[in-house]
């Protein structure tokens, strides 16, 4: 398990011991039932090769994964949460992350995304606004613009302008890549929350977008005849703490929400980033997925066909959440 997840779980246990956890509970009985159900299902494997959304060329996609993950956050209209960033082309509509992916694909297609062509496209905030033009506009546009400027600058200064060099410099190791994304691109990939108590300050290093980039790459590398080699140490990653996964885990009883939190989510009221209830939702997701993967893979080696990676589990939960009636929590954040 990667060190950041270990820290989250360690701090969650301390909060539970001190009875400071207020809003979310992890239900071990439901985890056992959930795991039993998962064992009867085929593993969900997503290659991130959706038509007209992702590049077919594997190395173009590897670059695409890092760039798009940096701005993969918060698509809801915060005034009208039922609406999300949407673009429409002919008879096809794209929403949320798929709309963001489509914006990149319709501009870059199968080209390698580098700092050089990013500079041309995102030369001003007006240009960034035009790039993301939709029938429902993308929120937090300025943040996305400045994150892309950071990507351009750091790629130029440290990686010869090419995202593929991040993989090379990390020796195609998931944990080294995670650390490089966090270290060199703080605006893009830093994602740490804190809970302050009278005894100590607890740190929750989630780094969702950095782990998402790794997950996307690994998914494509798993495709038959992929030109990409799988990242080593990928199975050390156990959770990608966004808003969809806890929505799904709550729907199957693995996460239980306290009544006040449940009402806030049901009414689609905003939960501010770094509030304790938001941190608890995300930390509980890490704790739950850690236990789920541990039970799913007990006695199995990673090359066993029955072994579940976070890529399989996250896909099951993220796509499963699309059909859950109870809403997800809403937080205006650049973290997820």
General description of the model:
This is Queuosine 5'-phosphate N-glycosylase/hydrolase. It comes from Uabimicrobium amorphum. Keywords: Hydrolase. The protein has 336 residues and is mainly alpha-helical. The protein has one domain. Helices cover 50% and strands 7% of the residues. The chain contains 15 helices and 6 strands. The strands form 3 sheets. A two-stranded antiparallel ribbon has the order 1-6. It has a two-stranded antiparallel ribbon with strand order 2-3. The protein has a two-stranded antiparallel sheet with strand order 4-5. Strand 4 and strand 5 form a beta hairpin. The radius of gyration is 19 Å and the shape is globular. The two termini are 21 Å apart. The model has no long low-confidence stretch (mean pLDDT 98).
Determine the structural class based on helices, strands and strand pairing. mainly alpha
* Main sheet overview: 2 strands, antiparallel
- Given as residue ranges, the uncertain stretches (5+ residues, pLDDT < 50) are none
The shape, in one word, is globular
């Amino acid at each position: 398990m990667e060190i950041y997840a270990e820290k989250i779980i360690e701090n969650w246990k301390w909060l539970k011991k001190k009875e400071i956890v207020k809003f979310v509970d992890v239900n071990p009985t439901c985890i056992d039932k959930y795991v039993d159900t998962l064992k009867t299902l085929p593993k969900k494997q997503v290659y991130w090769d959706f038509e007209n959304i992702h590049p077919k060329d594997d190395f173009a996609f590897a670059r695409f994964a890092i760039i798009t993950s940096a701005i993969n956050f918060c698509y809801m209209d915060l005034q009208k949460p039922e609406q999300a960033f949407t673009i429409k082309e002919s008879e096809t509509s794209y929403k949320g992350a798929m709309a963001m992916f489509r914006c990149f694909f319709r501009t870059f297609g199968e080209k390698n995304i580098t700092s050089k062509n990013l500079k041309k496209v995102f030369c001003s905030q007006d240009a960034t606004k035009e790039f993301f033009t939709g029938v429902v506009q993308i929120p937090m546009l300025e943040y996305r613009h400045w994150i892309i400027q950071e990507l351009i600058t750091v790629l130029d200064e440290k990686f010869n302008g090419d995202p593929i060099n991040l993989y090379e410099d990390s020796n195609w190791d998931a944990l080294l890549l995670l650390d490089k994304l966090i270290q060199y691109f703080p605006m893009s990939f830093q994602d740490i929350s804190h809970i302050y108590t009278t005894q100590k300050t607890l740190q929750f290093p989630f780094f969702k977008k950095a782990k998402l980039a790794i997950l996307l790459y690994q998914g494509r590398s798993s495709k038959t005849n992929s030109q990409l080699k799988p990242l080593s140490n990928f199975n050390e990653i156990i959770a990608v703490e966004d808003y969809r996964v806890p929505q799904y885990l709550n729907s199957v009883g693995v996460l239980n929400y306290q009544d006040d939190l449940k009402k806030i989510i049901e009414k689609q009221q905003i939960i501010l980033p770094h509030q304790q209830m938001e941190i608890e939702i995300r930390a509980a997701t890490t704790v739950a997925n850690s236990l789920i993967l541990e039970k799913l893979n007990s006695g199995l080696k990673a090359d066993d066909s029955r072994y579940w990676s976070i890529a399989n589990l996250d896909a099951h939960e993220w796509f499963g959440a699309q059909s859950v009636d109870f809403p997800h929590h809403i937080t205006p954040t650049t973290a997820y």
